[in-house]
Amino acid sequence: MYFEQPYGVSRQAPPLRGVRRMNLRQNISRRYFLFCVCGLCVLLIIGALIPLFVYFIFRYRNTISFLLSYPDFVCSQHSCGCPNQNYEKSFMSKIVGGKDALPFTYPWLVALTDRYTTDPFCAGFIISSNAILTAAHCLIGRNSNKSQILARVHDLRQFNGDRYDIDKLFIYPEYQYNDSMQINDIALIKIKRSFASDLQPCCLPTKQSSIYPPEKTAAVASGWGKLVAKPNNRNSPILQHVVMPIVDEKNIKCHQSIVDINRQLCAGYNSLSIDTCSGDSGSPLLIVEYNDKKQGHFVATGIVSYGNRQCDTSISSGVYTRVGFYLPWIYDILLNF
Questions:
Q1: Are 282 and 123 in contact (CB under 8 A)?
Q2: Is pLDDT at 275 greater than 90 in this prediction?
Q3: Main-chain phi, psi angles of 308, to 5 degrees
Q4: Could you report the per-residue pLDDT of 51-85, keeping only the tens digit for each?
């Protein structure tokens, strides 16, 4: 027998609509909660990225990633700092990342070798008729009677320049070093006979300041060091040179490499694998001091001291002894020759 459902059964529908409303509210609540959580995550990510962005800007601030051109200046009627060749209108950047210099461009540049050899262990530069500057670490453990100075050098395989014997070595008394850093890395060498009169010396800087030269100044480095930073690679037989910018001492690539900003300075590119390397030590870092917009001369603002093992300033800046700090010491020795 069929029993008709009582009307009371159909009245269960309203509670089902209430459940649906409740589920809807719960779904909305869950979505709102997930939206809030996602929004919070986005804010946290943004909050984490902002300091990283600021750090990146600080780390690489005031760096140059494009190749600088050779300094454009005219040097005439000056007793020092005038290159033998006209400046180059274009400059392609091995030092590590440089190019062959024209023969005898830098008359003050000399090679330090063992006696009767032509394989330099360091470089140096003439500052007077009988004195050169170099890096102190070049002379540690060296016997002056077993070393010589080679001038008028371009291609070491065809050397027919001048040899000069060493009279005395003057290593800065407070020179210090460890496995990764050096400080007061400067030395002066007195030779036994005067340099030829046409070997013009390099000028010394006129300013003693930890902010000179200013950041981004174009600086020229040169030497016969390695072209590739590998243990078995030999030095370049032909003189190399390269243009690099001065790096702000607050830049992390410089700051992490130097000991004292008053006694050292940095140079190098942000993302180009260009640097001085083993064998270039002691050579000058040249900048132009201008008399006016076109007239000027080279001064040795720095001396090649040290850098990373890869010879790559995109990793960390090359470090140079700041010559201006040591001017009183240099002139005191020269006056007492």
A1: yes
A2: no
A3: -75, 165
A4: 554 444 444 444 555 678 888 888 877 899 999 86
Overall CATH class of domain 99-335:
mainly beta
Distance CA 145, CA 160 (A): 21
Q: Which residues of the chain form beta strands (DSSP E)? A: 99-100, 109-114, 122-128, 131-134, 147-151, 162-171, 176-177, 182-183, 187-191, 218-223, 240-247, 264-267, 284-290, 296-306, 318-322
Mean pLDDT of 125-149: 97
Note if the bond before 213 is cis, omega within 30 degrees.
yes
Residue with tokens 């040795």: 300
Domain boundaries, the chain: 99-335
Which CA distances in Å does 225 have to 101, 231, 290? 13, 12, 29
pLDDT at residue 242 tops 60: yes
Beta carbons within 8 Å of 183's beta carbon, 6+ residues apart: 174, 175, 176, 177, 259, 260, 263, 264
Average pLDDT taken over every residue of the chain: 84
Tell me the whole-structure pTM to 2 decimals: 0.78
The two structure tokens encoding residue 6: 């009582």
What is the distance between the alpha carbons of residues 78 and 306, in angstroms, rounded to a whole number?
A: 31
3-class secondary structure, 97: coil
Phi first, then psi, for residue 45 (nearest 5°) are: -65, -45
Q: Which tokens sit at 272?
A: 């180009």
pLDDT above 60 for 92: no
Q: Which tokens go with 109?
A: 């540049």
CB 269 within 8 A of CB 246: no
Instruction: Decide if pLDDT at 230 tops 80.
Output: no
Residues 75, 76, 80, 85, Cα dihedral to 10°: 60
Q: Which two tokens stand for residue 117?
A: 């050899």
Q: What is the maximum alpha-carbon separation in the chain?
A: 137
